[in-house]
Structures
1.
Amino acid sequence: MAEEKLSMVVFSGTVDKLYPVAIMASGAVALGQRVDIFLTFWGLMSLRKGAPQQNQQVSKDFEAMGPEMMRIMKEKNVPSWLDTLRTAKEIGDVRVHACAMTMDLFDLKQEDLEDVVDDITGVAQFLTEAQGGTTLFI
Amino acid sequence: MDAANEVRIDRVVDARGSFCPGPLMELIRAVKESQVGDVLAVLSTESGSARDVPAWAQKAGHEFIGVFEKDGYNEIVVRKAR
C-alpha cells in the first residue's frame, strides 16, 4: 500500500483556521499518515517568531465572536494551536514548510520563524510531495 | 460494565478535561512507551475519543477492548498488540 499522506496549504492566519490545521495534523499522524504543511501568505505570517503568542484574530465573517471564543478557550484550558501542532510533530511525521515566494516577498529568513517550521520549500517541490495524497487548502 | 472486571489494566492515562484530539494523543504516547500485551485505559471527558480511539486502534493494529461509561467520563481500553 502506498504511503498515506495529508498535505495542507495554509493560507489563512486567523486562530480559528489555524486550530483545524493543528487538529487535522494530529488526527492524521494518529492514523500513521505523513503530514506536509505548506505555509503561505497569512499562514506563514502567523508563524513569525512571537506571532502565535500575540495572535487573537479570527475570520472576518465571525469577527464579533472572536473575543468570546478566545475567552472560552482560555477558560477551558484548550492548548494553543501551536502546542497542538508541536504534539502532532512529537507523535508522527509532520513537516512544516515555509513558502519560498512569501519569504522573499516579506524579506523573511528561516530564523525569523518559530522553530516548528522545518524548511523553506518551493511550490513545485511541495506539490511533488503532496502528489497522490489528500490536499486541503485552509 | 467495568473494564476492571474484564481485564487487568496496566496503565491509566487520565486525560479528563483535555479536548479533542488530546486524549488520543496522550494515549498514543503512552502506548509507545508500553510493552506489547499491556492494557491501557484512557479517561476522557470529550466526545471524540470514544469514536477516535477505536478507529486509531484498528489502523495502528492494536486491540480495542471497549468504551466504558463512568460518572461523567469514558474509560476507553486498548491492548497494545505490536
2.
Amino acid sequence: MPRHGYIAAPILGALWLLIVATTIAVAMSFATGQAFRPAVGFSLVWGAALGLALVFWQGSKSAAALAALALFGSALTPVGPMIFGPDVAGATWAFSAAALAVVLVVSLRQILAGLRFGAVNRHEFEEAAIRFLTGFGYIFFTAIVLIPFYVMVMTSLKSQQALLQNPLDFGLDLSRGWGLLRSYYELFADFNFGRYLWTSFFVSVLTVIITLLFSIPGAYAVARLRFRGRAAIGRSILLIYMVPMIVLALPIYIAFSMTGLRNSITGLVMIYPVTTIPVALYMLQGYFRGLPAEVEEAGLMDGLSRLAVIWKITLPLSLPALASVSLYVFMIAWNEFLLAFMLLDDPSKFTLTRGIASLNSSEIPRQHLMAGAVIATVPIMALFLGLERFMTKGLTAGSVKG
Amino acid sequence: MAPEPPKGTGPLQKREARLAWGLLFPTLFSVALVVILPLLAIFWISVKPVGLADLRATAPIVRETLRGRGQDLQIEYRLRNSSQTDPIKGVTLTDVIPPQFTLGPVAQPCVLTGRKLACDFGDIEGGFRTRLRIPVTISGDPAIAEDAMAQSPPTITGTADNILTNFSFTFENFARVFDSSEFYSVLGVTIFYSVFGTIGALVMGLFAAMLLNKSFRGQGILRGLYLFPYVAPVIAVAFTWVTLFDPFSGSANALLIQMGVSAGPINFFGERPLALIMVTVFEIWRYFPLSFLFILARMQSIDTDMYEAADMDGASPFQKFWYLSLPQLLGILSVLFLLRFIWTFNKFDDIFLLTGGNAGTRTLTVNVYEQAFAVSNIGAGAAVAVVIFFCLLLFSFLFFRFISREEGL
C-alpha cells in the first residue's frame, strides 16, 4: 500500500526531481546551446531521499534549507541529478544547480505538504498526487506551447551559419544590433511582405464586414421570427459546418479558372465571407435568442418597424457578441491558407499566408520562413491577447469550427 | 354557436414569414452559390473524364498579319485549333476590311461582300492549322493603313464540345479510386489520424481544463497562452514544427542526441510510421485548446453544491472527479468528440503543410488534392471528394441522431 508517508513521499519526490531536472536541462539547453542532461538514475535516488527527508521533518524550514544545500552540492558532483557537458562554464553550472535546488525543494515541499511520515488517509494521499499532477501539467503544457513559438522567434533572428553550427543555440549575438532583424528587413524590402500584410488586412476586414452584413439579418430571422422551415434552416447551418473546404475548393478552382476570377482579390473576397457566414450566423442567433424579447416588442408597440427594431434595439444590445464574432471571423480570414494557396499564383496579389508558403523553398533560408511566420502570427496574437475576453466567449458561443 | 378561433395562417403571420425569408435570402443565396452549387458540381465532375488541361476550353484561334513589302502585299490569317485532340464545329471567320485596303481575288472558302470578308471553314479537327493569304493593295500611308487593320481584328466563332458540359460519362474515376491498392491504406491513415487526433485532443483538453478550473493569479494569462496553438496561423506553426523537427538543423533532434535519447538524427516527418504519429501529435497540439475551452466553460457551470455534498459524505478528490465531474462532462465530451472527429476527418492544411501527404500520411482530403493537381486528374480528385462527402453524410446523420439532443448544439 502506498498510503504511508514513507512510501508515497519518496515515489513522488523521485518522479518530481526527474521532471524538474529534465525541465531545467531542456530550458538551459535551449537558452545556451550547451550540453545539459538529466541523470535519470541519480535523479530518482536523490529525489527519493529528499522526499523521505522532507516528509520526515515535515514543515521544518531548516530541514528544507539543508535539503536544498545538499541537492545544490550534489549537482556539482558527478553523482548529481544533472550531467553537464564539458563546454558548460562554471558560473552557468552553478546557476543551474542552484536553480534546480531551489525550485525542487520549494515545489516538493508544497506537494508533500499534507503528508505524514506514517499512515495517511485516502484524502491526504490523493491530494498530494493531485498537487504532483498539477505541477507536472503546468510544466508540460507551458513547455509544449512555448517551445515552438520560442523556436519560431529565435530562428528568425539567427544567421544561417549559426543555425547550422548548433541548432540548439538560441542565444542572441547582441553585438549584431539591428542586424538581428535582417530577415525581417529583407522580407519587407525584397519579398514584398508589406504589400502582403496590407492585402491580408484588407481581405480580412472586408470579410468581417460582408459576413456581418449577411449574417445579422439571417441570425435575427432564425432567432426571433416564426416561419415554416425555421428548424430546418437552423440545422442545415450546422450541416454546412461539416462540408470540408477541400471538397468545395476543387469546383471553385474550376469555376474561377473559367471565369477569370482566379488570381484576383475580388474572387477571394467573394469566397471568404461565405465560409464564415454560417459560423457567424450560428453564433449570433444563439446570442439573439438570449436577449429579452420584451424590449423588442415594446419597440414594435411604439411603432418601430422590424428593421428599425433590429437597428435601434437588437444591435446595440448585442455589441459584445458582434465583437466576438468579428474577431473570430477576422481570425479565420487572416489564417486562411487553402483557398489562397489554390487561387493565387501572382506574387503581386498574395495574401500573407500565401506569401509565407512561397518562402518554403530550398533556396530561401529558414530564418526568412520563420520571420514570415512571426509577421503573420504577431498581429493576430496581439489582437487576441488584447481582446482575449471576447475571443474566449466567441469561441465557446457555439462555434467549434477548426 | 360560439365563434370559432381563426384557422390557417393570418396576414400578420404571412408578413412575418415573408420578412424572415427576406432577411435570410442573402445568406441562403450566397451559401447556395458557394456550397450547394460546388457540391453538385463535384458529383457531376466525378463521373466525367476531366484532366487539369481540359479546364482551358477548346477554341479556334486566329492571328492577322500584313506581309510582304512595297506593292506586293498580302493579308495573312493564321488559324489553328487550340486543342490537339478535340474537333471544333462550324468555324467561321469574319473581318471588316478597312477602306484603305483593296483586296485582290478571294479564294475559297472566303467570300467578300462589300467590305466584309467571311470565311467558312466548316468543322476542323484537333491539331488543325492553316494559313490564308489574300493579296492586297494599299492606298495612302502604309502606317495608317496598318493601324486601321489593327483596329479591326477578325472575329472567329466555332463550337467545341466542352468536356465539362457534354454528356459523356465515365465510371473510370471511381474505378480508379477504389481499385488502387493505395485507397485502403489512405482510408486507414485517415481513420487513424481522425480517431487518435480527436481522442488525444479531448484528453489533453480535459487535463488542461482541470488545471485551470480554479482561480489563482495568472490564470487569465495561462488560459490565453494555452490558446496560442489554435489562434496562430496554421502555416506559421506547421512550418515551425517542420523547422523544429528537421533531421539536419532541427533543435529537437539536437536536443535528443545531446540528452542521449537517440543515437543519430531522426527524420520525424519523413519516416513511415513516425510521420503519421507526428502529424497526429501536431493535430492534438493544435486543437487541444479548443476542447480545453469548451470543457472549461462546462466545468465552470457545474453547480458547486454537489461537491459540497460530496465533501460532507467524505468523497476523495479522485472519487469526486470520477463520480461527479465526469458524468457532468459526458455531454460536452461526446459532442466535442463527434464534431472534432468530423473536422479532423476534413482537415487538409495541416498534413499538406507538414509532409505534403508523403511518408504514409496521405489522408482522403490530401488525396483529393493529390489526384486533382499532382496527377492532374480532376475527375479522380472529384471522385475522392464524393467518397468523403458520403462519409460525412453518415457522420452528420449520427451527429443529429445521437448527439444534438444532448447539448442543444
